[in-house]
Amino acid sequence: NCSLRDVIVVDEAGKLVNVLSYLSLISTAKDSVKNVAVYGQGFVGITLAAALANLGHQVYGVDVQESLIESLRENQLHVIEPSLNDVVNTTQELGKLVFAVDLNNEKVDYHIVAVGTPVDNKGVVNLEALEDVVGSIGRRLKRGDVVMLRSTVPVGTTRNVVRQILGEVSGLKAGTDFHLAFTPERTAEGKAMEELRTLPQIVGGLTAHCARRSMELWSSLTDSVVQVESLEAAELVKLINNSYRDLAFSFANAVAMLSDQFNINSFKLINAANEGYPRNPISLPSPGVGGYCLTKDPFLFASVDPNAGHARLAVTARLINDQAQSYVLTQLERYLDKVGKKIRNSKILIVGLAFKGWPETNDLRSSSSVFVAEALLDKQALVFGYDSVISPKEWKKVLPNVEAGNLENDIVDSDVVLLMNNHPNNIPKNFLTLVKKGGGKLVFDGWSQLDFNTFNSLKGVEYATMGFLSNK
Fold first, then answer.
1. Cα separation values, 404 from 309, 314, 350, 395, 423, Å
2. Backbone torsions φ then ψ of 118, nearest 5 degrees
């Protein structure tokens, strides 16, 4: 009798590359249950942890914030995603999803890093949280483990920062003793649970075997896993996806700024340009481009070579999209000047506080509405807010000086109503009746959700959108 204990791996020249445990190879087959730790339970981490646990993997959701972990254990989620609450509740009851501040002796073979990597107002990234988590992983790392970075980082971070920390702390060698890969997150808020199953997952490994080991986990989640040639290629995938989107939106917003010179409704202009035209569909404008990713990733993309053409494009796009949110204030001030009012003590209602309306989210990070509200408060306006998704209790944590009144009464009483995101439930069905009842005011329709012709018969009511102000 004989037994197979180890598998010897050689390259094409017959040189020894690795010695793998046969039992470990069996346990890492595509359909086997994996033991996974997801570090960081923000939007990216909680949705991924839930999705993996829902497949039957044993998942540990780790975060240093004790209050957050306690809330998650009680199924009180901080992000809004269709089906997420149900999945978290069910997988916790089954013991497949366990939330923890730290891991003790739990068996973990896959480590996925999903902590935040914020940038400052100069676009410089802060990697402190990432480095802390990687250090903690290094202290428990064992041979055969797979470490995957999901946090968005400057190109080269996985190889030059993460690999070095893991090696120094663990005493193990990446690519030989353990496996290292970058696997970018590309889901949209409000569609994450769906897109985790349907979007192709990108994998770039330190070595080909690192990539294969990573793909074993991702192939259980989606049928489409795309291997790219290196860690850096995978890092770049996320950055070029989001930087391109921000650049496309900036072109639309630049068109809106140009349209303003001729008082043209930029939505109608772009829709006319796109109608029946088979090439290069143009994005529609918006009162600024917010959210955590699109306001951050272009700076990381630019940091590769700040003087290169791609960097100038990315930074310019960011400047244009910032101008688009300031344009809201321009239209507001034009109207108030025309009717002889000052911003100070004018009542301004901001409808839609999340950074986007649809797919719906409760995320206020880098929201244009927050920027506009704070600018108006600085000018001593009376600012009221409303969001159909976020309760006043939650949004007041970010905007404590914005009042939460009654939506219908505020529409009637306001001097200016700013419709700042495109959630359909933000606009009541009797909106025009309420506007008419209140008399003279400005309605700024930031996403062109209303038919501006309907305002023609409303005496004293003016309509504005990106590029256009009635009776300018």
1. 45, 37, 10, 10, 18
2. -70, 160
β 110-113/35-39 pair status: parallel
Q: Is the omega angle on the peptide bond into residue 359 within 30 degrees of 0, that is, cis?
A: yes
pLDDT digits 0-9 by tens, 273-301? 999 999 999 999 999 999 999 999 999 99
pTM of the model: 0.90
Residue range 304-323: mean pLDDT, rounded: 97
Q: Which residues contact 70 (CB under 8 A, 6 or more apart)?
A: none
Q: What totals of helices (H) and strands (E) does the chain contain, helices first?
A: 17, 16
**Cα separation, 62 vs 352, whole angstroms:** 32
At 349-375, the pLDDT tens digits run 999 999 999 999 999 999 999 999 999
* Whole-number average pLDDT of the chain: 94
Q: Give the mean pLDDT of 1-27.
A: 58
Q: What is the pLDDT of residues 378-397, one digit of tens each?
A: 999 999 999 999 999 999 99
Burial of 233-266, coded b for 16+ CB within 10 Å and e otherwise, reads ebbbbbbebbbbbbbbbbebbbbbbebbeeebbb
CB 218 within 8 A of CB 225: yes
At 213, give phi and psi (nearest 5°): -65, -40
* 275 Cβ contact partners less than 8 Å away, ≥ 6 residues apart: none
| Structure tokens belonging to residue 138 | 């290094």
Amino acid at 307: N
What integer pLDDT is reported at residue 26 of this predicted model? 47
Alpha carbons 248 and 44: distance in angstroms, whole number: 24
Residue whose token pair is 């973990």: 108
Sequence-distant (≥ 6) Cβ neighbours of residue 338 within 8 angstroms: 471
Q: Which amino acid is at 290?
A: G
Q: Looking at residue 121, what is its pLDDT?
A: 80
CA 56 – CA 32 distance, rounded (Å): 9
Q: How far is CA 446 from the centre of its chain?
A: 21
